[in-house]
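Example 353, ligand pyridoxal-5'-phosphate.
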Amino acid sequence: MVLDSKILEVKDLFEKIPIARFCFFPTPVHRLDRLSEMLGVELYLKRDDLTGISVYGGNKMRKLEFLMGDAVDKGAEYVLTYGATQSNHAMQTATACRKCGLEPILYLISLVPPVEDDLRSNLLLDKIMGAEIHIITPKKEDLLFKALEQANDEAQERIKELEDTGLRCYEIPAGGANPVGTLGFASGMTELYQQLNQLEVEIDYIAHATGLGGTLAGMAAGRELLETDVEIISFGVVEKPPEHLEQIANLANKAISLLGKEGTITLNDFNIDTSYLGDGYAIPTEASTNTLKLLARREGILIDPVYTAKAFSGLIGYIKKGKIPQGSKVLFWHTGGTTALFAEQQMVGKVYL
Ligand SMILES: *Cc1c(COP(=O)(O)O)cnc(C)c1O
């Protein structure tokens, strides 16, 4: 357990950081009674699918409060970011931009090719919000990192074009995975621990889906600042280059240094398991599809096929194998993404069968 005084001390560190407040915080924490009974653990859910500001919120909104705060502070008019065509991050960036009166420009990698006259899910929302959209078609499937580099080159030209006319641009990396964005989940950890104290619940584990790693870096930074030894279990849903862990550790330490402290996070602080990923990013597995249906049918909770369903299938795997002992208190951080339920069939899986 973390003392209230410690939490307030950590919250104080954020006071001098620019922030644009637009989320509905704190997001709810509640117990999943029927699933807890079925699995033999005490299961809690942190509802970052409900961050706002539209009904299509998610974990990127936490990062975006800090990123938009920084963009406004720097006098930006345009915000550029990157993702896949159905990127939750890109859609949430467009949302946050509109809330703050900024112009969103999105560079989107077409992993699943969109059908121009039948746009779905996040790409449809991006269009409704009037984002400037550039679609990049990767030369080979699965080369997300290569395609992101190409997108970056094209974006630099666009930035130059805009800046030559006297406009200011603010660039956000894919997933909001930079030190400023990472502050979002460091702050989110203080929010969570205040709620847990109010609920008088002490958790042993936090489980969540990890992609580009900003969420995990922020959680690890928050854990270090709060001096708790909660175990964070991260289920990887994207293939990663080997240097990935080092990068997340750097991200966490840089976020801590923005708060005026020195971070000591190393790659040994992470526990990323990609064994529930299946055939690749945004490709459903049988277990993830079954898990998605299980949460819907046992608890009336909707999770998403790309991130949370794979992570939750991992969590169930851990409980069944005894890697998480019976009777443990586990919090699953619902990071949102449920618009993907309305995406292309190959992303959704056969969820209605
Ligand atoms: C982006 C995303 C994640 C992963 O967050 P990272 O910070 O990129 O690791 C998890 N769940 C959902 C629904 C997301 O959109």
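Summary: The beta strands are 29-31, 42-47, 78-84, 103-109, 132-136, 169-171, 205-210, 231-236, 272-273, 329-334.
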